[in-house]
From TrEMBL:
NCBIfam families: myo_inos_iolB (TIGR04378)
Statement: the UniProt record of this protein carries the keyword Isomerase: yes
GO biological process, alphabetically ordered: inositol catabolic process
Keyword Isomerase: yes
EC number: 5.3.1.30
Domain of life: Bacteria
MF (Gene Ontology): 5-deoxy-D-glucuronate isomerase activity; glucuronate isomerase activity
UniProt name for this protein: 5-deoxy-glucuronate isomerase
Swiss-Prot/TrEMBL keywords: Isomerase
PANTHER family (UniProt xref): 5-DEOXY-GLUCURONATE ISOMERASE
Gene: iolB
């Protein structure tokens, strides 16, 4: 069994957590990720500690508050496959967040080291940059939830919809060297949803020297760790694939390096996520 796949628990714990990745469990330094499933009426309160947090409301409606802000009735889509941009809330380190589920709720908790440089804020759907990347069998829909041109200390957050029969994070690219301006070092998690949910996605994670070279069969609700290397994704015919990416590293910038063997696939359009 690969150590790169993190599988959900069948039942939520007392906080609604069904999947958890910490820097300690992943064996790296920066990225944390949790998936919460809260029942209607359930409430959760947490301190952020040393971490900045981006709460992404994947499905459902909630009230969310921090020490200095409150946003009521946020959330719109009931499934990620509605493909509308989500509501999210950025919460700095040294703060807290309270979530009150107004419906069945699925929330991604994206975490990375914070330095207290920014205030808590709502990221509404109209503030999310939506774009189509690629063409033909590498066309996909991208929602830039927390890109590098929006304020945060460490976090980069994006979601991608890959239609069935298409590829994404393609051509294969990596960001595992602290070698700016050419390449940045970013750890990354992928949280997957598949529709219909009995399907699967394929992801290959490999390095130039093939010291890491795994081809993963990823099921609905599972997550993948990308500590290094190239990491393309395929959606098999008949199954649409969604994933939420969380990235962080020593510098908050996304500079990637394409696999030289496959860089010829690049077209005039930007196709590398």
């Amino acid at each position: 069994m690969t150590k790169l796949i993190v599988r959900p628990h069948p039942d939520p714990d007392g906080e609604g957590r069904v999947l958890s990745i910490t820097p300690e469990s992943a064996g790296w330094e920066y990225v944390g990720f949790e998936l919460l499933r809260l029942s209607e009426g359930q409430q959760l309160s947490r301190e952020t500690g040393s971490q900045e947090i981006c709460l992404v409301i994947l499905s459902g409606i909630a009230d969310v508050s921090t020490k200095n802000g409150e946003w009521c009735g946020i959330g719109k889509r009931m499934s990620v496959f509605e493909r509308t941009p989500p509501y999210s809330v950025y919460v700095p380190n040294g703060d807290k967040y309270d979530i009150h589920a107004l419906t069945q709720l699925e929330v991604a908790v994206c975490a990375a080291p914070g330095r207290g440089n920014h205030s808590a804020r709502l990221i509404a759907p109209e503030q999310v940059g939506a774009e189509i990347r690629g063409a033909g069998s590498i066309e996909r829909q991208v929602h830039n939830i927390l890109p590098e041109n929006e304020p945060a200390d460490s976090l980069l957050v994006v979601e991608v919809f890959t239609p069935n029969g298409h590829w994404s994070s393609y051509p294969p690219h990596k960001h595992d060297r602290d070698s700016l301006p050419d390449e940045s070092m970013l750890e990354e998690t992928y949280y997957f949803r598949v529709q219909p949910d009995q399907g699967f996605a394929l992801q290959r994670v490999y390095t130039d020297d093939r010291s890491l070279d795994e081809t993963l069969v990823v099921k609905d609700g599972e997550a993948v760790l990308v500590p290094e290397g190239y990491h393309p994704v395929s959606a098999p015919p008949g199954y649409d694939v969604y994933y939420l990416n969380v990235m962080a590293g020593p510098k908050r910038t996304w500079k990637f390096h394409n696999d030289p063997d496959h860089e010829w696939i690049m077209t005039a359009s930007h196709t590398s996520r």
